[in-house]
Amino acid sequence: MSRHGESGDAAAGARSEPRAKRRRALSRLNVGLAGALAIVIVAMVNYLAFRHYARWDWTAQRLFTLSPRSVEVVRGLDRDVDVYLFLSKDEPSYVELDELVQRYRADSPHIHVHQVDPVRQPGQYQTLAARFNVHTISTPDAPKADVAAVVAAGDRSWKITRGDLLKLDFTTLDDRDGPKVDVQAEGALTGAIIHVTSGHKPVVCVTRGHGEWSLDGGQRGLGGIVDTLERDNVEVRSIELRGQDPIDPSCNAVFVLGPQRVFSPAEADLLDRYARDGGNVLLALDPLLDKDQVAPTGLEHFAFERGARIDRDVVVELDPQRLLTTNPVNEFLVTDFGKHPIVDGVRVRGGVLAVSVVRSVRPVPGSGAVSLFETSDAAYGAVDLGPLSQTTAGAGAAKELAAGPKDLAGPLSLAVAVQQRAGADDGGAGARSAADDTAQATSRLVIVGDSDWLRPDLIGQAQFANVDFLEATVGWLAERTELIAVPARKANVQAVVMTRADLDAVLFRVLVLLPLSVLLLGGAVWWSRRT
Predict the structure, then answer these.
(1) How far apart are CA 149 and CA 160, in angstroms?
(2) 68-181 and 203-479 share one CATH topology?
(3) How far is Cα 327 from Cα 34, in angstroms, rounded to an integer?
(4) CATH, range 203-479
(5) CATH number for the segment(s) 68-181
(6) Residues of 208-240 as b/e, b for ≥16 C-beta within 10 angstroms?
């Protein structure tokens, strides 16, 4: 019996061995198929991720979400554009700028991003620095490029400096949020892309011969403004109206900035014919004082025909919250803005303009002209300057002033924009609002009752939106919408302040709680395996 049982067990073992081999083979096959399927799934996911590239912006201010204008520009590209980042990865702005350019790359296959670190890639950096005329700055830590990025397409290139990326804004300073940062990198990148891909370069012609602000420097020089406009791919020229007939048609816009002498009827007629032919004009007109009244400029009729009234007054701002000096006629802030593409960005961002010695400029009712910004309700326009000249010398001047019977009551409009059909000569009936896009050939006019907002000490201040107003005005007049449709984004600047108690709490968590949690987790795993 035992011998027979042993033989039976051997036969059963012999029969089970092939089944075990088959099970092992099937198990290996299942593992192989599962591995192959996992590889296929990973490959498919990567392929879909490559073909359908997407990124999300979780920042509170949507700092990395491109504006509709930037998306329109990038998706409309028909040629390759290379973006070279010359920031070291250790620089504070690198991560934000890299994230932003990746957004551009995601919206167009024509955008190619190249990261070139001057420290880690010195050979490639030197080659590109020579190609784009980039200079190296020696710092105690490491050498740096004098630009943050270069945008290139074909033989055209544009430099973006670190100052173009952001600037501090202390106008909204408070204890809770701290100062703001205007993140301007998107506007700089979009403007650079347009510069290197567009063959058209708008021309702004600045008049001379009447004591205007000059391109040649001096006390009333426009050097900083010219640099700003040239960075926006706008050419600035100087023209003389006297003896010109007609105005050079290559001028996309004519700027009359702070004339100190009256325009002759012939010169005003030149501007009138230029505007009727579709030209665009900016008038920045200070009140010209003549004894106890404001003298005419010679351009009042030209402006009135297009729907704007240039008042012969001096604005007195009596709201103490807006005054920058004790004199209510000198520098004060403008915080009330109308609805127009020129000031929409400033209004949305809560910016302020700084002006000085201003006259009022009002829309003619029914003309379609739009007021861009105005004074407070407490302000008034002094027509008779006799009382004004006697009371604006002391520290309490604002308390002594009051509007007279001939003066204009506030709030007063200080700037006007109007768009008009080219060739219209119907006394303002041809004027239209900014929202009316039915007319094809148009002339655009902006009148500001002040030119001191262009002063270097005002336009160069980060807390004022004067440079934003300048760029938006140029963009609207020269029909460069990218200068007015890519607003800066504001972000909070908050310092991390840690007390001694905070440091002790961090030390306790790192040196005690973290190791203890690892020991507890290890003990739990050991006990689980033991049982």
Answers:
(1) 5
(2) no
(3) 83
(4) 3.40.50.880
(5) 3.40.30.10
(6) bebebbbbeeeebebeebbebbebbbbebeeee
List CB contacts of 345: < 8 A, sequence separation 6 or more: 468, 472, 484, 487, 488
Query: Six-digit token pair at 90?
Result: 């250790």
Task: Determine phi and psi for 48, rounding to 5 degrees.
Answer: -65, -40
> The whole model's pTM is what?
0.63
What residues form DSSP beta bridges with 431?
420
What the block records as the tokens of 438 is: 């039915």
Show me where the domains of the chain are located.
68-181, 203-479, 498-526
Residue whose tokens read 């020229």: 237
Q: What is the pLDDT along the chain (531 residues), one digit of tens a residue?
A: 555 555 555 555 556 677 777 888 888 888 888 888 889 998 888 877 766 655 555 454 445 567 776 787 888 888 899 999 988 887 877 777 888 888 888 888 899 999 998 888 889 999 998 998 888 887 777 788 888 889 999 888 888 887 777 554 444 444 444 444 444 677 778 878 887 887 667 889 999 989 898 887 777 788 777 877 776 668 889 998 887 788 888 899 999 999 999 999 999 999 999 999 889 999 999 998 888 889 999 999 999 999 999 999 999 999 988 988 888 888 899 999 999 989 987 887 778 999 999 999 999 998 889 999 999 999 999 988 877 766 554 444 555 677 778 889 989 999 999 998 876 554 444 444 444 443 356 899 999 999 999 988 888 777 888 888 998 898 899 876 655 555 545 444 444 555 667 777 888 888 888 888 888 988 888 888 887
φ/ψ bin of 178: left (φ > 0), alpha (ψ from -120 to 50), beta (otherwise): left
CA distance 409 to 426: 30
